[in-house]
Amino acid sequence: MKKNKIAIFDIDGTIFRKNLHFELINELVWLKIFPQKVRKELVGVYSDWLEHEGVYDDYRRKLVGLYAQHITGCSPEDVKRASRILMPFHEKRTYIFAEQLMKKFRKENFYIVAISGSPIEIVEEYNRRYLKFDQVLGSVYSVGTDGLYTGGADFEPTKNKGLAAKQIIYENHLTFAGSYGIGDTESDVSLLNLVEHPIAFNPNQNLKAVAEKNKWRIVVEKKDVIYDV
Predict the structure, then answer these.
(1) Deepest in the core among 8, 55, 156, 205, taking most CB within 10 A?
(2) Distance separating alpha carbons of residues 218 and 221, to the nearest angstrom
(3) Gyration radius from the chain CA atoms
């Protein structure tokens, strides 16, 4: 049966209760692919966010910078191996609301997509083992002629999730009619602006303000309780 409706999810903080990028960096340290000092930097970045030293997007950008700095000279197979090792420990740490939506969309034969800022290697492994979505996008880091990462990025979907969503629509001969979008930070705004049913899930302050202005649905999940704001 042809799928003619689309649902697009963010992953970190929307499906996954933690952050794939954070877990990948941590695993790369355990495997001694990244130096031990990176764990201290990683914990510092996370602590700053927990202690309200900046917003979530600041935390995300610091993760990206830390990863880009230390991925230089590593091989794609190192990252794929780390992804395969860590995913079994974390794959089911999901939000109940996301699980409910995924069940609904599968039952109704939606084309289901995830767009994440985390590296494509961990995003694809998460999808292979657990999500089993029709398509996933993640950040693609540049590989040089020597087959090793250069530290640069060829593609970062979080810079414009709306544009990425339009490309997916075009390539799969879909429309935004009846579409859903689910995200938790301001990086999801360009996507949520396009879909027919935008959902701000556990939004940070910046997304909450945009959602209230646009009268989007706001959903909060606290422990095992889900409610609309």
Answers:
(1) 8
(2) 10
(3) 17
Ramachandran angles phi, psi of 174, nearest 5°: -110, 180
Q: Pairing between strand 111-119 and 217-222?
A: unpaired
> Which one-letter amino acid corresponds to residue 60?
R
Give me the residues of the chain with pLDDT under 70, please.
1, 52-55
Provide the whole-model pTM.
Answer: 0.92
Render pLDDT for 110-159 as a digit per residue (tens, 0 to 9).
Answer: 999 999 999 999 999 999 999 999 999 999 999 999 999 999 999 999 99
Q: Which domain holds residue 205?
A: 6-228
CATH of the domain at 190: 3.40.50.1000
Strand, coil or helix: what is 196?
Answer: coil
Residue 154, burial from CB neighbour count under 10 angstroms (0-12, 13-18, 19+): exposed
**Measured on CA atoms in the order 192, 20, 222, 61, is the torsion positive or negative?**
negative
How many domains are contained in the chain? 1
* pLDDT tens profile 126-137: 999 999 999 999
Domain assignment present for residue 82? The answer is yes
Selection from 207, 57, 80, 54 nearest residue 141 by Cα: 80
